[in-house]
Design goal:
single chain, 9 helices, Rossmann fold
Length: 294
């Protein structure tokens, strides 16, 4: 074990979006979250970020799960599909609305652009009352900070930097901030290891957790993998999918990019066991991006 404070109560997760097959950046994040859990004998779960059907690719969830299984990264519990727990989101949203912490907003993007681009307290005068309403959370003029296990201390003034943020979009889907908080609580997640591109979302999630009386998980935001052009590898940027036949050959390079020792042993399972056994999150590069040819 790499940290005596951990125990088998550790519960981590990997939550891919079924908007396309798994690419190298996602595989790197999956391996990091899996290794952090396995290094301390913890549980590792998979759930699908499947709340935005227009962005989803038919069959992508199956491709993702097949690739993860081929990589030896298998959920310790049934894969959570967010649509199956959507009732939790509605109940939580109802509580926030009833308490006055959340409110209906009919401001369009163009409305907000005229007002400086950030929603702070009051909706824009003249917003079309016939427009479908989004639901936003009221935020305080206060600093919300976290001590990230990789990136160190990070803080935001929510009112200045973010403004009242969306919990449910005007077109119906629940927003990532709400879904991530509710899902983590529903699954008892204690530790979140994910890409640094989500670091700036974390103070919003921590504040929402406080509003709901929830404990915050510990966070570790690892560097995201970028290509030679400096852009993040992503499905939106058409990053190529990983093939199952590539995985064993890629593991040493992925371990190196994460600051870990090259895995000893022959074969996929032996390499995975070595990565978990020797995992040190304090050796993960303390930077927002990493570039490598894999």
């Amino acid at each position: 074990m790499t940290d005596g404070a951990f125990s088998k109560s550790y519960r981590g997760r990997f939550a891919p979006s079924p908007s396309g097959p798994l690419h190298l950046g996602s595989l790197l994040a999956a391996l990091a979250s899996w290794a952090d859990a396995r290094a301390v004998g913890g549980h590792w779960l998979i759930r699908m970020e499947d709340l935005d059907p227009p962005r989803e690719q038919p069959g992508a969830d199956g491709l993702i799960l097949d690739l993860l299984e081929a990589a030896g990264l298998v959920s310790d519990e049934a894969v959570l599909r967010r649509r199956r727990v959507a009732g939790y989101f509605a109940a939580v949203l109802g509580r926030l609305l009833q308490s006055g912490m959340a409110f209906e907003c009919r401001c369009s993007r163009s409305d907000l652009a005229l007002a400086g681009g950030i929603h702070r307290g009051a909706c824009v005068a003249g917003a079309d009352p016939r427009r479908p309403a989004a639901i936003r959370l009221r935020v305080p003029d206060a600093e919300i900070g976290i001590d990230d296990r990789v990136q160190g201390h990070y803080r935001q003034n929510l009112l200045r930097d973010v403004g009242d943020f969306v919990l449910r979009r005007a077109d119906g889907p629940y927003a990532y901030q709400l879904a991530a908080v509710v899902d983590d609580a529903h699954q008892g997640i204690t530790d979140v290891v994910r890409g640094s591109d989500l670091l700036e979302s974390t103070p919003r999630q921590v504040y929402l957790q406080r509003c709901l009386g929830l404990s915050a998980p510990r966070y570790a935001h690892i560097p995201v993998l970028v290509g030679a052009d400096g852009h993040k590898l992503s499905k939106q940027n058409l990053a190529p999918a990983v093939a199952a036949s590539q995985i064993a050959a890629l593991l040493p390079d992925i371990a190196h990019l994460l600051g870990q020792d090259p895995p000893e042993g022959v074969g996929l399972q032996a390499q995975l066991a070595a990565i978990a056994r020797n995992w040190r999150i304090d050796r993960v590069p303390r930077q927002m991006t990493i570039q490598g040819i894999l």
